[in-house]
Amino acid sequence: MSSPSSMAPSSATTVVIYSGGMDSFTVLHRALREGISVHALSFDYGQRHARELEVASQVCASLGLPHQVVDIRAIHSLIDNSALTDSSQPMPHGDYASDNLRATVVPNRNMILLSLAIAKAVNIGAERVDYGAHGGDHVLYPDCRPEFVEAMNHVAGIANFEPVTLHAPYLTSSKADILHEGLAMGLDYRQTWTCYEGRELACGVCGSCRERLAAFAANGVTDPLAYNTDTAVGLS
Question: 45 — phi, psi (to 5°)?
Fold first, then answer.
């Protein structure tokens, strides 16, 4: 994966897999600061927290960025054995750990999304795909681990006549590290959505909310996002 410290040429283009969450929001702005041309790509796969797609669209509109939301709900029955894609399953609460949040694993999700993003990159002549995998996901999600990203980067280089580089700048960073960099860039994290529940207010108790809140606490700042105070804990 290319080094984020090396400035990309002004003619370079990347496809950013942009969910609307904190990590991809920071990845998106990091690419923009490189001076690279950004095409944002989001996916509707029937996730319960589809509100993240609304947030992603609003951000891209405000930035004037090309943004495509791809409807892949036709594959929902192939990946519906997850609390993120099956609303009848209870959403597990607590910190990220394999014993209590395994139910949130969506089968083969990132391989599917990366394959489509690589196709988009080849189609528009982009040299790179940016992806927000980070170190905090390694304990639970196999498709966010370095060995997966390295293997997919190899595949992206040989799957087409035009090689594409898979760029995961936060692969070994924690969420607190990502937030620290984003705050240094002056980013407004009210423009992100993290909660797995996808309701009007963030729940504050799902694994994703708890990881987000912990990242803000580690940086000594208060999360600007609104939470359901009836359920949320540790808001400061």
Answer: -110, 20
C-alpha 141: how far from its chain's center?
A: 13
Residue at token pair 């304990």? 139
- CA proximity to 168, closest of 143, 188, 194, 187: 143
Whole-number Å distance between alpha carbons of 54 and 70: 13
Residue 104, pLDDT > 90, answer no
**Two tokens, residue 154:** 């190899």
Assess contact for 209 and 202: CB atoms under 8 A. Answer: yes
Global pTM value:
0.88
Rounded distance, CA 154 to CA 51, Å? 33
- Give the Cα-Cα-Cα angle 196, 61, 222 (nearest 5 degrees): 45
pLDDT score of 81: 74
User: Token pair of 136, please?
Assistant: 């905090």
pLDDT-based confidence at residue 6 (cuts at 50, 70, 90): very low
Q: How many CA atoms lie within 13 A of 62 on its CB side?
A: 9
HSE-up (13 A, CA, CB side) for residue 143: 14
pLDDT of residue 5: 35
Residue keyed to tokens 């999700």: 109
